[in-house]
Design brief:
The complex is a heterodimer.
Chain A (H helix, E strand, L loop, with lengths): L3 H12 L3 H22 L7 E4 L6 H10 L3 E4 L6 E6 L8 H4 L3 E3 L6 H6 L6 E4 L6 H9 L5 E6 L2 H13 L5 E5 L12 E7 L14 H4 L2 H20 L1 E11 L8 H7 L5 E4 L7 E2 L3 E3 L2 E3 L7 E3 L1 H4 L4 E8 L2
Parallel strand pairs in A: 5-6, 5-8, 6-7, 8-9
Antiparallel strand pairs in A: 1-3, 1-4, 2-3, 9-15, 10-15, 11-14, 12-13, 14-15
Helix pairs in contact in A: 1-2, 9-10
Chain B lengths: L2 E4 L2 H15 L3 H6 L3 E6 L3 E6 L1 H10 L7 E2 L1 E6 L5 E3 L1 H7 L6 E4 L1 H8 L4 E2 L3 E4 L8 E5 L5 E7 L3 H6 L4 E8 L2 H4 L3
Parallel strand pairs in B: 7-10
Antiparallel strand pairs in B: 1-2, 2-3, 3-5, 5-6, 7-9, 8-12, 10-11, 11-12
Classes of the chains: A alpha/beta, B alpha+beta.
The structure holds S-adenosylmethionine.
Chain lengths: 321, 180
Amino acid sequence: MFTEDDLVEELAERYNYRKYMVKRYLEMFGKEETVKLLEANEQKLIPSLRCNTLRIDEEDFVTLFTKKRFVLEKISGISYGYRVLKTPFPLGATNEYLLGFYFLQSEASMIPVQVLDPNPGEMILDLAAAPGGKTTQIAQFMKNKGVIVAIDINRKRIKSLRSNLSRCGVYNALIIRMDGRQISDLGLQADKVLLDAPCTGEGLIPRDPTRKTSRELKDILYVAELQKSLIDGALACLKPGGSLVYSTCAIAPEENEFVIDHALKNEDIHVKKMDFNRGSPAFTGVIFGETLHPSIKEARRLYPHKDGTEGFFICKLQKDS
Amino acid sequence: MIMFRLSTHEELKFIQNAIDKLFGEKIAEKFIQNKHLIIGEGKWKEIFLVSDKMIKIVEAIADKKQPYSLGMQIGELDKNKKFKLSLEAVFEIVKFTSHKIQLTAKGAQTILYGRNISFSAVDKICYEARKGDYAILLDENGFPIGLGKILHDFAKMQLNRFKICIKNIIDLGWYLRKGE
Ligand SMILES: C[S@@+](CC[C@H](N)C(=O)[O-])C[C@H]1O[C@@H](n2cnc3c(N)ncnc32)[C@H](O)[C@@H]1O
């Protein structure tokens, strides 16, 4: 008889994954959807970019790139976001890249800032900022007015953060290298906080197939603890009435819903419905032995097989005034 | 360790003069406006242009954390007190100064590779350039790509179109060569 263990073994072997991953996918998604996910992870994602209006007018940008025979398609619901359907030459080192006219940013990773909706004059905390895809996007929404406090712990990555902010003409950021878990020591009170948390990157398999075998369950559990400490710190820096967006490119509920469930233990915090209708509702009910708060269904998950993006999680939280 | 502090009055005057000398009278005033200069002091001095709102935050956290970087880095003062302008400042100052030289597409590419150029790479000189001047270099579409120092007088440059006449001081290619 063909058992569940046989199925795990077969799929893990066919697609070259660690068995524990496939076993967990089957529990999360069932057989049919798991196969679709594994299959979609083998496909290339459509590249995308964000036009940087701090450096060029959006219309001029489209004209310039169309003249250069790039085929761009506007991403609906995401300001300044474009899919790049045809590239006559690589986008990584063009003169326009050096001029800061665009940032190469995946479609899913443009959503958190869109949902955060930063405005000119606000104080925004970006707690895991390097290399700055989202920091430059925040500055663009703010028209370089107000202040972004951009934190990262990593020496090398913070250097690229600085370089990217410079290249994109971001002048309203205060970069601090520190452990985000200690952020509450600074006594900041931000209007909005972005926590694009460090994660195990399981959603990035379409771009990085080595992730199929590079991580153990214990890595996920370790990162989940870091994420919980970071969200505690982030919430402590949020003004009453302010909102926080939590995002990851992780698939595991431990790095996503569990972290939100942990944050909701704080009574002043609740999940906010997002003005964004892509993706699927996040997990609620019981999963991997944990009972999750029902309001977490307002958080969104994106998947390669359903949304054509990397695996992604986004949740918006609000602090009561 | 780099310590950050507000510029002294002398430092502010020195930097304003340096910018005006490079790009023309009152350019520093237009560029700096109502912002403040912060000095990051380590082995050399880095100069940042910062808003009021940001200064307040920096001051509030000063006894706990020093910034890594902030606002717009407009340049550096080296040990010999020589002022070196940044790429970010070039991008802003280009809006106010007439000290600009437009290059051919090929000339722009040469600059972006970090090299110097000859007069054959020049498409248009937008002002009365003189030997020793610094000018913002524009690519063929008019976008700023760097800063150059003019090595010869105009008449001499025309005589020998293939002799190096503009020295590359900084260019956007830096972001690929060093920045990443
Ligand atoms: C998912 S990446 C952030 C990507 C970034 N938001 C962007 O859009 O370009 C997570 C970042 O968290 C940083 N990080 C990891 N642990 C941290 C900690 N304890 N405190 C602050 N940053 C941390 C990593 O160095 C990494 O740059």
